Amino acid sequence: MSITRDEFIARPGIVNKQGYLPDPSELVCVELPKVFDQCLIKRCLVYACGPDTLDTDYELRSDALNDPRIFSGCRDFQLKLISVEKIPLKKCPSYKKVIVCFKISFYADYIDCNGETKCEFYEINRTEIIWKLYCPDSIAQISTSIGSGESKDIDSGIIKLELVAECLNGFFYKNDCDESFLDITLGLHLIVKCELVVQLLIPTFGYCPVPSECEEDTEEDPCDKFSRDPVPKFFPDQKLKPLFEDECEDNE
User: Fold this and answer.
1) Mean pLDDT for the chain?
2) Using an 8 Å Cβ cutoff, are 100 and 108 in contact?
3) Confidence of residue 189 (pLDDT cuts 50, 70, 90)
4) Residue-wise pLDDT tens digits, 148-183
5) In this structure, which of 34, 68, 127, 244 has its CB flanked by the most CB atoms within 10 Å?
6) Strand ranges (DSSP E) for the chain?
7) What mean pLDDT do residues 134-156 have?
8) Is the sign of the CA dihedral 155, 156, 159, 163 positive or negative?
9) What is the pLDDT of residue 192?
10) Spatial contact of 153 and 142, defined as CB atoms under 8 Å apart
11) Nearest Cα to Cα of residue 84 among 97, 72, 69, 65
12) Residue 43's closest CA among 20, 60, 66?
């Protein structure tokens, strides 16, 4: 049985697999970045002196630290795209060799010998080459004006980076001068996307409704809450094997 428009609530959410959406109210043209191609780059980087490689980065060593004892993790990762170079492939110009330069920054926390938590700031610069990515050029030339009336040419082609990073390990190193450093092992999942601003025709159910009011945090009497809570189990569950075999098994 299909859902009528009166029963349908226009809001984001999971589509009910047991029913059907009502007919859309209109077809609209929207302008938005569409992903034409994307690929995943996975790196595990460790510290090494000298030029950076696919597996090493010399910026993963901290400055000299004062009596570090325990590495406690990393936080506040930031990604910044510095530059993009797109080189058309001779046999198929719609495919590009893409060179991206970007910067990743984060903080690494550690505990010193006095029990105080300290942090060290890291900033690594990386260059990745994607040898073949489908990045067609826009056929139309786009120029727009906003507010002041002055026109501005816009490049509809977009290279976008998405990053998930984590510190896999951190260990302290002492040099011959008895100086301590924190070396980080960094795991990266980097998605490189080629997008193009296009017009898409999509069905809609009208404008989104006004959202409900924000919930207010009301104080509750702790005794009232305690009286409604279930009684806890006084003992843990026993993990025992049955004494007898299943009587339902066929006896030969």
Assistant:
1) 87
2) no
3) very high
4) 666 666 666 889 999 999 999 999 999 999 999 999
5) 68
6) 26-45, 68-88, 95-112, 117-134, 142-145, 151-154, 157-174, 180-204
7) 74
8) positive
9) 96
10) yes
11) 97
12) 60
Question: Which residue bears the tokens 């795209």?
Answer: 81
The residues with which 101 forms a beta bridge, in sequence order, are 83, 127
pTM given for the model: 0.76
Rounded mean pLDDT of 228-250? 77
Residue pair 61/157 in contact by the 8 Å Cβ criterion: no
Rounded to whole angstroms, how far apart are CA atoms 46 and 184?
6
Concatenated DSSP letters for 100-123? EEEEEEEEEEEEETTS-EEEEEEE
pLDDT in the model for residue 1: 54
The first and second tokens of residue 86, run together, are: 């797109």
Q: How many whole angstroms separate alpha carbon 115 and alpha carbon 251?
A: 66
